[in-house]
Every structure is written in structure tokens, then in C-alpha cells.
Amino acid sequence: MNHATQLLREAIQIGVGIILASIGLKAFLLPNGFLDGGATGIAILLSELFGTNISFVLVFVSLPFLALAWTSLTKRIFWKSLISISVLAVFIHFENFSSITEDKLLIAIFGGLFLGAGIGLTIKNGAVLDGSEILGIYLNNRFGVSIGTVILIFNTLLFSATAILLSVEIAMYSVLTFLVTAKVIDLIIEGFEDYIGLMIVSKEAEKVEKGLTQEIGIGITIYKGVKGHGNTGEAEQKEIIHTVINRIDIRRTYNLIDEIDPKAFIIEFDVNNVKGGILKKILGQKK
Questions:
Q1: What is the pTM of this model?
Q2: Is the pLDDT of residue 279 over 60?
Q3: Which of 20, 47, 124, 214 has a 20 to 30 A CA-CA distance from 206?
Q4: In CATH, which of 3.30.70.120, 3.40.50.80, 3.50.50.60, 3.40.190.10 is domain 195-284?
Q5: Strands of 233-246's sheet in order across
Q6: What is the mean pLDDT of residues 262-286?
Q7: C-beta separation of 218 from 283 below 8 A
């Protein structure tokens, strides 16, 4: 798969993610004043309090987080995130959905489902729709605080403010929305910092090694295979590449290997815990 095709596929999936997130917001959450967590929740809260257009508030609230993204993430992810958030704001501004249901429980669940699916699909393709993840990455880099802890504290403060400024009921339904959103995101991208292992056997081992270290930016270990048997018969002295990557980089890694050697033999396996070495953190963060 060439680079242009890969970018087109990512752009299409990010576009689908933006549409799903906008449906969750305009068809479910915004008409009923429900919040989600993160920067999106702040934007909804400010819009409810001051009666301002949510599209402009969302972009305004996202600017500080995007500034952090400039230093915490790769420039490619920064620009993709900036464009994604801007397009989401435009979609929210022009979309006009009629109310689907008045059941508050259904609103919280399905609003969170659509929003979580949109955010998850966007993150899976290397962009960010909500700034709280960026804040978590930044504080994790600077002070070693876990991303999950940052997001939990951030949203605890947000929902507490919602209970005081709006109502306890809205705050409670907003917590439910956030939990559904977070779970759906996890189901789509299988965790922000989940790692997987790859064992790669290729006739173009040297080129694959160079691509993994220079383009993907991960560490590798080379094993010497004494003998093997495959569809081409018996093979001697094969180099076996062993590496551990973040799940968000899995598509880029497979695309890279396919470009070099479409017939490469790859084994993918779950990794329970990783310590030390050269690891790519969430969202392609600089190593």
C-alpha cells in the first residue's frame, strides 16, 4: 500500500469518526444539556452557561490543548488533530437533528456510544478530538503522572462543577455518558497504552529493520534462525525480528512491512507488561 492510499484511508476513517462524534453531540447530548468528559465537556458546560455557539467554544477550549500537542506529540498528529477538531466544529454548527428520544437514560448511553466511537476511530488513525488525552500525555512526560489518573482528576473537577453550576441530575447523567464513551473508546482502540509484540520473518529483513527503527521509531531485537520449513521448502539462516509496539502504530507497521515484503511472515501476540527499552508511547509521541 503506497503512502497516498494510506493517507486517504486514514482521512476517510477520521471523517467517519468526526461524523459519529457530531451525531452523538447534536442528536443526543447538546439538545438535553448533557456533558461528556474532557475538553468537549468543558465546551458544552460553557455553552450552556453563557448561551454561546458550541462550535466556537469547542475550538476556543481546544486551543490550549493543541498548544500542548505541539510539544508533546508529533507534528503530523498535531496538524491532523487541528483539522479534525475544526471539521467537527463545522459539522456541529451546520447539522440539525431532530430529537430522537426523550428518555434521559437512552440519551446518555447512545450519546456516549456515538461520541466514543467517533473519538476512538479518530485516535486509531492518529488524531485527537478531545484535549484531555493530550493533557494526560503532557503531564505524564513532565511529571510521570499516569494518563488515566490525569483524565480521572480532570473529569472529577468538571462533573463537580457541573453539579454546582447546572444540576446534580445533569452531572450524574454526564458521568454515565463519560463512562459509556470511555468504554467504547477502549473497545475500538483496545486501550490507550496497550502494547503488542510482533515476530517478523522476511527475506528483506535488513530493509524491515531499517524501516521499523527509522520510520516507526521503535526498538527491535534480532534472533538468528538456524533452520525453517515453509511453502518454499527448507530455509537456512533466517533473521527473526522481534519488537513491541503500541497498538495505535500497528497499522503503520503493517503498511511498512507490506511495502517492503508482502510475503513476510508475521506473528502478533499480546504483551501484558513492558519495562525499559525503546517504546513508542500513545499517539506516536516522540521517544
A1: 0.67
A2: no
A3: 124
A4: 3.30.70.120
A5: 220-230, 233-246, 195-201, 265-271
A6: 68
A7: no
